[in-house]
Specification:
Blueprint (H helix, E strand, L loop, with lengths): L1 E2 L4 E7 L7 H6 L2 E8 L2 E9 H10 L6 E5 L7 E10 L6 E8 L6 E10 L3 H4 L3 E5 L3 E6 L7 E5 L9 E3 L10 E2 L6 E7 H15 L5 H14 L1 H4 L13
Parallel strand pairs: 2-5, 3-7, 8-11
Antiparallel strand pairs: 1-11, 2-4, 3-4, 5-6, 6-7, 8-10, 9-14, 10-13, 12-14
Length: 241
């Protein structure tokens, strides 16, 4: 099931302070930013730090934000968060980029996969759960965007059962660009965890190299597919733009 949320609106002011002078702007409680898009002249904006921080904590890269520019008597501009720059040490917001979307033009973005439920096999302590892709690359109209797609792992009732991208319930209007054969989640036998942990320990001790582990994993795939996925024990994570 896909999840949709109510539109979040964010107030902004047109910005005239540019270049190195934006440091003073930040000291006054503002974060510089820019709104840009296809067939759209970019606009320099500034946002109140507190409100911007709260908004960013509520939305993801696939959620539309209505940006309302103070003093402009128009409907909010629909936009997606494209880049957030922070101070490396303190984590303070330094700059934010918003991509303005045309509601009649299809766009490409990523949505997160949200794991729900518990595998009966894992509950019975008969197997371990391995994760694959954590996001989907999709194409759709802005109005069809969802903030995430649920992955119900209660369907994984046996060891070696897996969920692939092709198994996901994707809403109408959304085209999935991610390879449909990509694994999302899979239940592996408990031995797979032990074998992989031993391999990692040997690699840390210098007994095995990464290439040898890969070779062992490939050999395991030919002999026993259930154990061959051990190399994917570390789930992939990709940050939203």
């Amino acid at each position: 099931m896909a999840q949709q949320t109510e539109l979040v609106e964010l107030m902004a002011k047109e910005r005239t302070v540019l270049g190195k002078r934006v440091k003073l702007l930040r000291q006054q409680g503002w974060v510089p930013g820019v709104l840009y898009g296809h067939n759209f002249d970019s606009v320099s904006l500034q946002f109140e730090t507190k409100e911007l921080r709260q908004t960013l904590s509520q939305v993801g890269a696939s959620q539309l934000i209505g940006i309302k520019v103070k003093g402009v008597e128009e409907e909010p501009e629909m936009a997606l968060v494209r880049d957030v720059q922070r101070d490396f040490i303190r984590g303070d917001l330094l700059h934010v980029d918003f991509y303005r979307v045309d509601m009649t033009e299809r766009l490409t973005t990523e949505v997160p996969l949200m794991i729900v439920g518990t595998s009966p096999v894992v509950e019975r302590n008969e197997g371990i759960l391995l994760y694959g892709v954590s996001t989907l690359e999709i194409e759709c109209l802005p109005g069809d965007l969802v903030d995430g797609i649920e992955v119900d792992i209660t369907e994984l009732t046996e060891v070696d059962h897996a969920i692939h991208v092709s198994d996901l319930a994707v809403p109408a209007g959304i085209d999935v660009l991610t390879d449909l054969g990509e694994m999302v989640a899979r239940v592996m036998p408990l031995q797979a965890e032990e074998i992989f942990e031993e391999m990692l320990e040997e690699m840390e001790e210098g007994i095995l190299g990464a290439e040898e582990i890969e070779a062992i994993t490939e050999a395991g795939e030919e002999e026993a597919p259930a154990e061959g996925e051990a190399g994917g024990v570390e789930g992939k994570a990709k940050e939203a733009r």
